[in-house]
């Protein structure tokens, strides 16, 4: 039986948790005893092949899909900013970016200055007065991200945030998402197929194929036998060598070794230490 509400045993950092959740459609399982938790300030990325249940899990976390069994916890008063995978607009519908940003946004956030500031934050201030149909795919993704930010979310939920964006734009957008997390202190839940880049910009990875195949720190997941079986040895080998300079070390679970005050980092290579340049 599905339950939603306060978890008396949760830590104060816990924002959302799906515990032992199962969902099926017309008798076909979409999720099978899946567990997912999102803590404050964490970037969690859901990966897996098409039909693996990623979007269904996102809908469960958002409260848009009622699970058949399991428990869902969302912190009381939690604010979520959602960026959907695709936005289909009637080409005959005239709508500017400014007007689009006002849709579904709290009245207090409707002022031009607030909306312009959101576009500045995502690097798209120049499209404020543009028609939605006249902007590029990359600009549209940034506009949708700005709209999600206007809710002042505790958690950003981004379903394929770089869809329709070229390879250079994808890297820039992932870096932007990371900087938003750092600046605002919000959590981020991402669904992605862009394994190489997203693995270097996330704290926790959950690999789905109706069930949780493996989960944990990106480096740990990239070497897990279930991940290798799902994506192949070549992909796993490529993901195992991403680099990020930092001045501390991790164990295989991604915990910082040594100085407890050292900042966390999700993108080291095989636990090796590097000095900042």
UniProtKB/TrEMBL annotation:
It comes from the Bacteria. PROSITE patterns: ABC_TRANSPORTER_1, ABC_TRANSPORTER_2. GO terms for molecular function: ATP binding; ATP hydrolysis activity. SMART domains: AAA (SM00382). SUPFAM superfamilies: P-loop containing nucleoside triphosphate hydrolases. Pfam families: ABC_tran. InterPro entries: AAA+_ATPase, ABC_transporter-like_ATP-bd, ABC_transporter-like_CS, Metal_Ion_Import_ABC, P-loop_NTPase. Residues 16-234 form the ABC transporter domain. Gene3D superfamilies: P-loop containing nucleotide triphosphate hydrolases. Keywords: ATP-binding, Cell membrane, Ion transport, Membrane, Nucleotide-binding, Translocase, Transport, Zinc, Zinc transport. One of its GO terms (biological process) is response to zinc ion. PANTHER family: METAL TRANSPORT SYSTEM ATP-BINDING PROTEIN TM_0124-RELATED, ZINC IMPORT ATP-BINDING PROTEIN ZNUC. This is Zinc transport system ATP-binding protein. It comes from Varunaivibrio sulfuroxidans. The lineage of its organism: Bacteria, Pseudomonadati, Pseudomonadota, Alphaproteobacteria, Rhodospirillales.
């Amino acid at each position: 039986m599905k339950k939603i509400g306060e978890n008396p045993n949760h830590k104060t950092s816990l924002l959302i948790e799906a515990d032992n959740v199962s969902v099926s459609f017309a008798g076909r399982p979409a999720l099978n005893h899946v567990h997912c938790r999102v803590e404050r300030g964490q970037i969690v990325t859901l990966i897996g092949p098409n039909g693996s249940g990623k979007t269904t899990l996102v809908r469960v976390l958002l409260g848009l899909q009622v699970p058949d069994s399991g428990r869902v916890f969302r912190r009381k008063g939690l604010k979520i900013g959602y960026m959907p995978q695709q936005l289909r607009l009637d080409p005959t519908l005239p709508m500017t970016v400014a007007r689009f940003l006002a849709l579904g946004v709290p009245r207090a956030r409707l002022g031009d200055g607030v909306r312009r500031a959101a576009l500045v934050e995502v690097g798209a201030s120049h499209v404020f007065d543009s028609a939605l149909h006249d902007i590029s795919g990359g600009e549209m993704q940034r506009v949708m991200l700005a709209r999600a930010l206007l809710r002042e979310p505790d958690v950003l939920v981004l379903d394929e945030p770089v869809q329709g964006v070229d390879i250079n734009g994808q890297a820039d957008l992932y870096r932007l998402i990371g900087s938003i997390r750092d600046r605002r202190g919000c959590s981020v839940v991402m669904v992605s197929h862009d394994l190489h880049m997203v693995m270097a910009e996330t704290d926790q990875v959950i690999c789905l194929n109706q069930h949780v195949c493996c989960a944990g720190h990106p480096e740990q997941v990239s070497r897990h036998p279930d991940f290798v079986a799902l994506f192949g040895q070549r992909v796993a080998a490529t993901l195992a060598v991403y680099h990020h300079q930092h001045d501390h070390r991790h164990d295989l679970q991604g915990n910082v070794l040594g100085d407890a005050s050292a900042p966390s980092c999700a993108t080291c290579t095989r636990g090796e230490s590097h000095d900042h340049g």
